[in-house]
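S2.1 Query sequence (Substrate-binding domain-containing protein)
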Amino acid sequence: MTQSLNRRGLLIGGAVVGAGALAAACTGNDPEESTPSQQSVAAGGDNDKAGKQVTIGFSAPAADHGWIAAIAKNAAAQAKQYSDVTFRAVEPTNDINQQIAAVDSLISAKVGALVLLPNDGEQLNQVARKAMDAGIPVVNLDRVFPDKLSYRTWVGGDNYGLGVAAGDYIGTKLKSKGVSNPVIVEIQGIATLPLTQDRSKGFADALKTYGFSVTAKQDAKFTVETGNQVASNLLQAHKKIDALWNHDDDQGVGVLAAIKQANRKEFFMVGGAGSANAMREIKAGGLLEATVTYSPTMASSAIKLARLIAQGKGMTDLVERQVPQSITLASETVTKENVDQYMPLGFES
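Output structure tokens follow.
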């Protein structure tokens, strides 16, 4: 278990350094070595031909989490594809007031568009609205602002669908095994976030169609350490488990370590987000049988959309002349049968 946690710590350290480098200055368009599992950019098209020069501001939480680190890397990598884009990333932070101040600095700099992944959508709603009122279109990434006037376009994953996919996988397998009254354990991310609540609702709704329900659930804050602690507590509380759903593959590193330490093998596990670490576990054929995607490539898409909006363009594949108000990514279930197809999109935990 210690080895897994230390490896994670080293990865986090590298991610933080990478994110800090992004924030140090405006990014030009110099080529940069990329890691396939960390950076994904979209292929070029008619809309990718050089147009009006725009500056895109970017703000996200601190990269103390593999998924967040990949968000920052994907955003920077996509911006580098365009000779007409200057990418201006502010220092990532988990402090609400510091993120508000950082976004304020981008507003004062009069950037052409702003891609913003807030630590908390409700708490950053006002500063996002301030940007919109100043004529700066905001592309709201992932954690949504409650006020639709605070963003031009939202792009993110299907959290409800993620829960449904996990519930369908577990429900189908338990039904096929003839299990009745199963013990189903759920480990959430941050329980207070709407995205977590959507995931749990989707999971519960899907299980209900099979006549099942969640036996116990607890949140693990999206961290390896808390994931390890919460899993250990749930394993001690339930001497027999039939299935476990863990919302987040990053915290899943700690969850898996706890399971291995307890030497529990009577159940199967489903993850969430689609990390490379989880996909390797799935391919190896262990307790973790599946994960449901929530890809950080959404940051690449957010940069593309911000550029189009700032340049007054629409999406060439659509009839409409303007970029849509919201774009929801599909939640795809990754299993041993299709894991090789999804591995290039995995991010390192």
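Confidence is low (pLDDT under 50) at residues 1-37. The first helix runs from residue 2 to 24.
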